[in-house]
Amino acid sequence: MKRRNLTFVSPLESSEAQIASDWQTCPRNTEFRIEPEAPPEDWEHQVRQIFESFTKTLHTETQAELKLIALSARVKCLESSLEEVRSRAAVVVPIQSLAPENLELAKPIQVLLQQFGDDCVASFLDANINASGETQEEALTNLKDMIVGSFEALSGVAYKLGPGPARQLAILSEFIKKNN
Amino acid sequence: MRIITKELALKIVKKLDAHIFSRDRKAHDIAMVFHDGQCIAQFGLRRGSEKDLGHDHVIKDLHLNPHKARLLAQCPLTRDQWIQILRDKGLVS
Question: Is residue A28 part of a domain?
C-alpha cells in the first residue's frame, strides 16, 4: 500500500500563510505615501499656549468642583441643624385645671413641651417638675399627675426638705389650693 | 432614642437609695432621694411593665445633663459624685 505524506496545517497558520501570499501579490503603490508635515516654526509657543489653556480650564473646573463640594457639605450641615431645631422645637401651653384631682389651680401653670428623642418631655420649669410621654398630650397629662403627686409627696415630708424640694413645694403651694 | 428608660430609672432609684411613694391608680409613683435626713430630689416613675418606657424627664429632675444621667444609671457616676453636683448648684445644704 502506498504511504501518503500528510502534514497538519492549523487554520491559524493557514490564514497567516494566505495573508503573506496576498501581501506579496499586492502591487506597491507609492503614490499614496503620506509624507510627514514639517512642524510649524512656532510649535513650542503653540504647545505652551495649549498647555496653559488646559491648565487654566482644569484649575477653573477644579475650583468650581471644590466650591460645589464645600457648598453641599454646608447644606448637609444646615439640614441636620434644621432637623435638630425642628425636633427640639418647644411649645408653651397653659394648664388651666388639675381635674379630676381634688385640687384647684390658683393660676394657670405655663408648661414647656419639648421633643426629647423619641419622647416628649413636659416641664413646669419654675418648680422643676417634669414628665415624659410619647405624645405632647400624654406628656401633659403625665405632668398634671406629677404636679399633684409631687405636691402630695413633698407636703407629706415638708419638715425634712432640702433646698431644692423646699423650693418646689413653695412654688407648688403658690399655684395649688386644696378643695374642701 | 430614649436616654433614660424605665429600666435605667429603676437602676437610678436603687443606686440613689430612693424611697418610693406608691400612689394607687395613678400614672406615676414618686421616688424621693434622702441625704442626711433631708429630701434632696424627687422624680416620677411611670407605671407600666415596659422596660423601655421613656423616663427622659428624670434627667431634669436630677439636675443633670443627658450624658451624666446615663453615667449615673450605668455606674461610673457615684451617688456621692451626684450629691456633690447638687451641692455645687446649691441644692444640698
Answer: no
